[in-house]
Amino acid sequence: MSSPAATHLNNVCKDKNRDPAPVFFSENVQTILKKITGTDFNKVFRQRFDEKKLSPPEYKFMTDEELKQKMKNAERLSSKILQMPPVLKERQAISNILSRDPAITGFENCKFVFTDITYGLPDRKRLVVVRDPDGTLRQASWEEAERMNQIYNPRPGRKLKPPKLFQEEHLTNVLERGEYEFVLDSACAQFEPDDPEYLRITSVVYESVDKKRCYQLLHSTRHYGPLCFYLTWNKKIENLLISLLQQEKLEACADIVRLYQLIHTDCKSKMINVDPNQHLELLKAYVEHDSLQQQQLQLAIQAYQEIVRERQQYNENVKTAHGL
Fold first, then answer.
1. 35's torsion region: left (phi>0), alpha (psi -120 to 50) or beta?
2. Strands across the sheet with 128-131, in order?
3. If you compute the radius of gyration of the chain from its CA atoms, what whole number of angstroms results?
4. Which residues contact 85 (CB under 8 A, 6 or more apart)?
5. How far is Cα 181 from Cα 220, in angstroms, rounded to an integer?
6. Looking at beta carbons, which pairs linking 190-196 to residues 24 or more positions away fall under 8 Å?
7. What is the pLDDT of residues 62-80, one digit of tens each?
8. Could you report the per-residue pLDDT of 197-249, keeping only the tens digit for each?
9. Any idea of the CA torsion for 152, 155, 156, 158, to the nearest 10 degrees?
10. Would you give the DSSP letter of residue 139?
11. Torsion angle of alpha carbons 257, 36, 82, 41, nearest 10°?
12. Spatial separation of the C-alpha atoms in residues 157 and 22, rounded to whole Å
């Protein structure tokens, strides 16, 4: 009989070639990810060091209706700011040879790149071909095409050469300082979401966040949803659940378990008939049937229940003391 750890390893290996995009973009998954991301206006609209000129604050007297309208506008703007980067499968390398002309071999020592500069074309649909010194005419690689697109249609925040920030020694130092959002924002600006480098960088950041349990640093940012999706996809939600329990966020724990059941449709806890509104029972079902760290989670649940009991007892004592 195989151990839970061996079963987990086998499941991860099976999921390696699974495309996460259809799951990530499904309506139910998106609903959960947006819900658990949260909307802390103080964090969403905080001052950012992005070299943009700040507007002076304005103070106005408003009626209740005007205030409600302003709050709705703030919610719409926050939804735009919190738009999550997509989670995609790693793209396949391009190896499309268009023609070979050995007659021109040796005439030049450099490559010639031909780029369609038609206005308004999406970068992915812009034709870029390369003539190699050996006479081969081929479709440009992803890196070559992105370099040409950046030359002719530069994107804000993207460099022709990736910053040294993403090199392992520099990345490690930045993550040690907890600059997770800065690294993820920079990666979004520099790379496409299916670029192997983007996937490498985001996975390193998510693993660092999980190791240090610094989830709150990404809460109410556009990266919290992809972080939770990554941990759930790779069956590493135990530390996140313990952290949420310590913050007494039981509903968020239940949402993570629901996300787990949507992603891993063959999980055992999904087969248990539990009322989805019973958050604690849903969490217990996951701990009993799917968790690889049952003991730690059971202790966290017991600590949470003890805190809740103590608070209820305190409130009852206060009411009794006031004759209520």
1. alpha
2. 97-100, 136-139, 128-131, 112-115
3. 25
4. 184, 188, 193, 222, 223, 226
5. 11
6. 190/157, 190/158, 190/159, 190/162, 190/163, 190/166, 191/162, 192/91, 192/142, 192/146, 193/85, 193/86, 193/87, 193/88, 194/88, 194/89, 194/90, 194/91, 195/91, 195/142, 196/90, 196/91
7. 999 999 999 999 999 999 9
8. 999 999 999 999 999 999 999 999 999 999 999 999 999 999 999 999 999 99
9. -100
10. E
11. -170
12. 28
What pLDDT is stored for residue 12 in this prediction? 42
Please tell me the pTM assigned to this model.
Answer: 0.88
pLDDT value at position 313? Answer: 87
How are beta strands 112-115 and 128-131 bridged, if at all?
A: antiparallel
Residue 313 has which token pair? 């007892």
> How many CA atoms are closer than 13 Å to the CA of 185, on its beta-carbon side?
14
At which residue do the structure tokens 């891993």 appear? 264
- Tokens standing for 305? 């229940």
Q: Which tokens sit at 113?
A: 């790149």
Residues of the chain with pLDDT under 70: 1-16, 49-52, 324
